[in-house]
Structures are given as structure tokens and as C-alpha cells.
Write a structure and sequence with these properties.
With about 400 residues, this protein is α/β, with parallel strands linked by helices. The protein folds into 2 domains: about 5-35 and about 70-255, Type I PLP-dependent aspartate aminotransferase-like (Major domain) (Aspartate Aminotransferase, domain 2, 3-Layer(aba) Sandwich); about 260-400, Aspartate Aminotransferase, domain 1. It has 14 helices and 12 strands. The protein has helices at about 10-15, 20-25, 40-50, 70-85, 95-105, 120-130, 145-150, 170-180, 190-195, 230-240, 245-255, 260-280, 320-330, 375-395; strands spanning about 90, 115, 135-140, 155-160, 185, 205-210, 220-225, 285-290, 310-315, 335, 345, 365-370. A 7-stranded mixed beta sheet has the order 1-7-6-5-4-2-3, sandwiched between helices. It has a 5-stranded mixed beta sheet with strand order 8-9-12-11-10. Helix 8 (about 170-180) links the parallel strand 4 and strand 5. The longest helix is centred in the C-terminal third of the chain and has 20 residues, at about 375-395. It is globular, with a radius of gyration of 22 Å. The protein starts with 7 loop residues before the first helix and ends in a 12-residue tail after the last helix. The structure holds pyridoxal-5'-phosphate.
């Protein structure tokens, strides 16, 4: 049986572990070495040069230093590459470190202009708008991509489903509009279980591995899956800037991958029921969930993405005051940023994850984002029901005059 024929569920359990039996071990080996013995100066120097310029370890060479290469990290990368149908993957200390490396690596081509399809995660939007990496960004909507591409455009970046509105972006259409320019898809919300951007024509799929890939709220990491040439450029940037994933984080991420398909499908099944239920609540004026009938106007569920996923955003009739009351009143949901964990989370994007976004692209102050976990659906609904009742009563008493403070 060749690895290519394996179902994604089997890959999630076995990819990056193929040699374990021959090594005589069953669990993933964890190598925490910060430095590695060198056979001799000549081989050590050559090994250093290959790794620091983005190459793969020399046969019979040394890994030299853990900022350049780590075998536990490399195993996780192998697994992600397989799940994303990519040649290679490169893992970073966070999702933002991965995106930063992608932008810094553009310097090699001299094409430092980026077309960014909004909405994006607040941190990505902030990084692009800041100019910190030396790139110039043009923000646009999906149908504005063709008009925004210039001769010096190095990449187009998009998120689908987008954060926090859960809008689906037609990846094939953006790839066509981008022409020769590579398209990078932030696949954090969909995960490779539901969407494989490279199969849709994208050049790269990247993740905040902190979210669904890790899945247990105990690790920060990022990963980019792409062709071998681009991966080498990213490894070079990673080696120079020092953004490699920690091996213990790689171990936890790889361990979490085994249950990724099960987690995503169970969380999605619960989210579908909760999204439907939320539409019946008087306190909720809009439910953003990428499922039929209203959340998928272009018919992308089933053709681009295998299911709607487990993220839901809602807009509250009582505006910011109701959002504030709701996030304080939940008992089973945790009021916290991040997403994709086994436990359910709730947060207010305009105040938190999207706080640094320029005002014209900021989410509504009435919008609250939910990440549905693995608790029983009925318990999550009961918690939201009691918290929405409090939020509805509070905002009815006139507290809805309150608006968000603008400290940022
Ligand atoms: C969280 C997140 C990021 C940033 O990842 P970190 O691991 O927090 O650095 C990027 N994109 C999306 C869609 C995210 O949700």
C-alpha cells in the first residue's frame, strides 16, 4: 500500500511516523537538543551551510544547531505536507511568524507588493498594514484582486472562511484573477480536513497551528505547506530570523493531528445545530455561518470546502452592550481569544483579535465569535440560552447606549 492511497483520516494518524517501527519505538521521538555533535569541522561546516541556506540535512552530516533543523519538527512538517497535498511544509514558532517569513521571503524575488483580500485575521491585517516587513499591501475584496495586481506583486493572500465574518472566498476564482501571481491561503479555520487549497490552485496553505491543528489550547505554532523551492526559501528565512517551532510544540502538534479529523467533524456537527438554533433567538439579528441557505451564496460548500466547519459569528440586537453582557454571562464557554480547541470559546473581535485593524475594515461592535468545542451540544445551547437572556435583558434596560472604548 503506497502512502498516496491512504484516506486523510489514516494519514492524520500515520503521516510522519512511517519509520517508527523500524526505529523500534511506538510514540513520536522528541529531540530537545539545542546543539548537535559535529563529526569533523569540514562536515560540520558543510552541514551548517546547507541548512542555513534552506536545504535539507546532508546524508551523514549533522543537524548542527536547533535553530536550523530539528527532527521532531521535521516529522510534523512531513505530516502537514501530506495532509495538505504539498511537496513540503515548514513550521514556525507561531502563525504570525509563518506569515512574517512568507512576507520576508518575497525580498528574494524583489516583488514586494502584496494583494490582501479582506477580511483577514487582525494580526495579519496589522502586519501587512504596518509595513514592518518592507512589503506594500493593497487591501481589496475578492472581486478586486485582478485590478489590484501589479508587475511587482509577489503574492495574493486570502482567508477562507474569513475571520471573523466566516465569509467564503472562491479560491479558484482568486487564483484565476491573480494570473501568474502565487496565491497564499490561510487555511486555519477550515483545516486540511475540510479544505486543501493546493488542490484548488493555491501556491501555499498556511496555518496558525495554535488553533485546530493543536486542538487542545496548549501550544502556539504556525506552518506553511507549499512546493519544495518555496519551502527552501522559507527555511532560509526561518534559520536567519530564528523563527523555528519548538520541538516540544511540534511533538504536541503532531500528537494532536491524529484526532484532527474526528475533532473537526464532531465540532462541525455541533456547530451546525447551534447555528440553526441561534437563528431562532430574538437577541440575535444575524448568524454568520458558512452553510446553506444564506452563508454560502456561491455554492462553495461541497465544491471547495467539504463542510461549514465549527466557527460561528453572531450579531446581537443589543449591540456592544449585549456583546459585553453575553461574553460575561457564559459559564461553559470560556471568554477568551483563540479557537479550534476541544473546549468552546467566545470573544469579541472588534475589541480583541481585530483591535489593530483599520477602522474601515473593523468588524461590527455587535459581533461576537464562537468556537464550538466538543462539549455536548445541548449543554452549549443551554449555556448560550441563559447568557443570551441576560444579554437581552441588560440591553433592553438602556445599557445599549454603551460603545466600545477606543484605546488602540
Ligand atoms: C490566530 C490566527 C493567526 C495567527 O496565528 P498565531 O499562532 O496566533 O500567531 C493567523 N491567521 C488566523 C486565521 C488565525 O486565526
Amino acid at each position: 500500500m503506497t502512502p498516496r492511497t491512504l484516506h486523510p483520516d489514516s494519514l492524520a494518524v500515520h503521516a510522519g511516523r512511517e519509520d517508527l517501527t523500524s526505529l523500534g519505538v511506538h510514540a513520536l521521538p522528541l529531540d530537545l537538543s539545542s546543539t548537535n555533535p559535529l563529526p569533523d569541522i569540514e562536515t560540520g561546516g558543510l552541514s551548517y551551510e546547507v541548512l542555513a541556506t534552506g536545504g535539507l540535512p546532508l546524508e551523514g552530516g549533522s543537524h548542527v544547531y536547533a535553530r536550523l533543523w530539528n527532527p521532531t519538527v521535521a516529522r510534523f512538517e512531513t505530516a502537514i505536507a501530506r495532509l495538505e497535498h504539498a511537496e513540503e511544509a515548514v513550521a514556525f514558532s507561531s502563525g504570525m511568524a509563518a506569515i512574517t517569513a512568507v512576507l520576508l521571503s518575497l525580498g528574494e524575488s524583489g516583488k514586494r507588493h502584496v494583494v490582501a483580500v479582506r477580511p483577514l485575521y487582525g494580526g495579519t491585517d496589522h502586519l501587512l498594514a504596518s509595513g514592518l516587513t518592507g512589503v506594500e499591501a493593497t487591501f481589496c475584496t475578492p472581486d478586486g484582486v485582478a485590478a489590484s495586481v501589479r508587475p511587482d506583486t509577489g503574492l495574493v493572500i486570502l482567508e477562507s472562511p474569513a475571520n471573523p465574518t466566516l465569509e467564503l472566498v472562491d479560491i479558484r476564482a482568486v487564483v484565476a484573477a491573480a494570473g501568474d501571481v502565487p496565491v497564499v491561503v490561510d487555511n486555519t479555520f477550515a483545516t486540511p480536513v475540510l479544505q486543501r487549497p493546493l488542490d484548488l490552485g493555491a501556491a501555499m496553505s498556511l496555518h496558525s497551528a495554535t488553533k485546530y491543528l493543536g486542538g487542545h489550547g496548549d501550544v502556539v505554532g504556525g506552518v506553511a505547506a507549499c512546493d519544495a523551492r518555496t519551502a527552501a526559501a522559507l527555511r532560509r528565512t526561518r534559520a536567519i530570523t530564528g523563527a523555528i517551532l519548538h520541538p516540544l510544540a511540534a511533538y504536541l502538534l503532531h500528537r494532536g493531528l491524529a484526532t484532527l479529523p474526528l475533532r473537526v467533524r464532531a465540532q462541525q456537527a455541533s456547530a451546525q445545530i447551534i447555528a440553526e438554533w441561534l437563528t431562532t433567538r430574538p437577541e440575535v439579528v444575524a448568524v454568520h455561518y458558512p452553510g446553506p441557505p444564506t452563508g454560502d451564496p456561491h455554492g462553495l460548500i461541497g465544491t471547495q470546502q467539504d463542510g461549514p466547519g465549527a466557527m460561528i459569528s453572531i450579531e446581537l440586537a443589543g449591540g456592544f452592550a449585549a456583546a459585553s453582557a453575553l461574553t460575561s454571562a457564559v459559564e461553559l464557554f470560556t471568554h477568551a481569544v483563540s479557537l479550534g480547541s476541544v473546549d468552546s470559546l467566545i470573544q469579541h473581535p472588534a475589541a480583541l483579535t481585530h483591535r489593530p485593524v483599520q477602522s474601515e475594515a473593523k468588524p461590527s461592535e455587535a459581533l461576537v465569535r464562537l468556537s464550538i468545542g466538543l462539549e455536548a451540544t445541548e449543554d452549549l445551547i443551554a449555556d448560550l440560552a441563559q447568557a443570551l437572556s441576560i444579554a437581552g435583558a441588560d440591553s433592553a434596560t438602556g445599557a445599549d447606549q454603551a460603545t466600545m472604548s477606543r484605546a488602540y
